[in-house]
Write a structure and sequence with these properties.
The complex is a heterodimer of chains A (about 475) and B (about 190). Chain A is α+β, with helices and mostly antiparallel strands. Chain A has helices at about 35-65, 70-75, 80, 90-100, 160-170, 175-205, 210-215, 225-250, 255-265, 295-300, 355-370, 375-400, 420-425, 425-445, 445-470, and strands at about 105-110, 120-125, 135-140, 145-155, 290, 310, 320-325, 335-340, 345-350, 410. With about 190 residues, chain B is mostly beta strands.
Chain lengths: ~475, ~190
Amino acid sequence: MSIDDPARPVLPPSPEQRTPPPGRRPTRTGTGAWPPLRRLLLRLHFYAGVLVAPFIFVAAISGLLYVWTPQLEQVVYDRELHVPVGAEQVSLREQVAAAQDTLPGAELKAVRPAAEPGDTTRVMFHLDDMGPSYSQAVFVDPHTAEVRGTLVSYGGSGALPVRTWIDLLHRNLHLGEPGRVYSELAASWLAPVALGGAVLWIARRRRRGERLRGVLLPRPGAPGRSRLMALHGAIGVWALVGLLFLSATGLTWSRFAGENVADIRAALSWQTPVVATEVPAASAGPVGVDVGIDHVVQSAREAGLTAAVEVVPPVSEGSAYTVTELDKQWPTNLDSVAVAPATGEVVDELRFADYPLMAKLSRWGIDAHMGLLFGVANQLLLTALVLGLLTMMTLGYRMWWRRRPTGATGPAFGRPPGRGATRELPWWALAVVAAVAVGLGVLMPLFGISLLAFLAVDVALGRVRAARERAKVP
Amino acid sequence: MAHIPRITPLATASATFLALALLSGCAGGVSAPSSSPSSAAPSGPAKGGAQQADLRVEEAWIVEPAEEGTTSAYFTVFNDAEQDDPLVAAESSVSATTALYTTSSKGMEVVEEIPVPAGGGTELRPDGFHLMLEGIEDPIAAGDTVTLTLTFAGGTEIQVDTPVLERSVGEQGEEPEGGHEGHSGHH
């Protein structure tokens, strides 16, 4: 008798599972939508979990490292970032000049004046051989204008080399665009796997008559697979919201799903506004005059920008200095002003409080994903989330290993949940499942493509097996 | 009988994925780009400069006269003092008068002083402030050097040895001021 016969779903032997008695075939109207839907979800959760977990392992571990890079940077680059506290500071112009002296002819890109006592000023230059997000950062002691060191700085966060390395590991495993696609695949599948698993776990506990406590804090029961599953399910439900959040925010950075997000944001005018950098002619003042960077920072401070700031000099004729706050920790201070070079007057301002709601949510979501929004608490929460995720994936593999038949021969791992559930779903349930799959597949193209590929292979294998079985039966 | 486990295709696939995932995760090297500083001096012909007290004059040059007896002079002056110190007067070794001009929508007009803000600087240029040397008796040509004497409100007098350059040659050295718009992405 073939154990791969699609008419007889084969479930792994364990006390909680129920196998329909031999010969009885569930009908479409007889037992309702849930049993075949549950088998479908189980099959999906199993396959997706087993195949995608390696990708998620790498993303999770690299992400965990990234969460702690702010502290790591402070330690590794202590010489560049910190100086003994002093009484007086030299002018910002002098600090910038000292930095420029180390790179004669280099184009000044931005300046981050020392924010706290004991900090250095970061003067950033653009070098011809650098990519658009990179700059050469020169660190200057604000008390003496002594140059403390030079490092490559990356991105709006000003990540220094160690953090940049870990950042790229998390984004694309240092593999460029293919790596980015790979990590998008992991992020796309994380949400369906987590949701499907949560549904299965809650249904399982409800079937056993347990209520909320059974879902969140199950009694481990007998040692063995059921204890593993109790841990796997409970951690999964606790972590569900966090995992969905990481997946959704992470996908905004991705290539395919990220483009869809950008298109939606553009269509609904949910984008992040930018302060205007062109100086209107009426407020421009005389041509050729520049009040200097110290005056510009002073004007910005008087306009209410009190946090650490970044000053970007005018990029072209007729454009302004822009001064932007850098404080992403709650409450977010990201106000920016444009200052006319000739007069030192503020000609445009953009307050974070005036962002559209979706732009604010997007900013907060990204900062929470990176562990910046709530400081150390944010970092600890992400750490707990990642450790839970790693534990869950390990438990999943262990459960699969434990399901292996221990007879003389047979597969080394447990058999996957049987196929054929879709045939037993009522048509309306099948329509809903298909609609959800298509919807998700359009929003997250890599999810859609990989699901289609899996289905194609699965159907083909099923046909091959069925043909083999038919050939055997005389 | 010995237990001979059969490795299912699924187990093989997942083991392969796991191995590839972990290997590629370990594979990265330091990926920061090379950090050689860009080559030394700014481009363009040598121009005049001088420094005194808290004032610093750079990039001074005089345009080879297109018509007899009159020409313009340009330079950039930086003020490192705590107070504004405008330029109030100028003289040159070749012209009878040297006037302070500005270019506005109405054309060029004389100004009393050219502002030089504290902690900042002013660049004299064709579409803004400039000096007009008038009454040049002995003709000057590209390659000559003229001495400009600049008098500032605070009392400082600076003498600058200023080369005469053809207009196209002098303007070719002009670089766009300021930095590079570099904020990308949302992180």
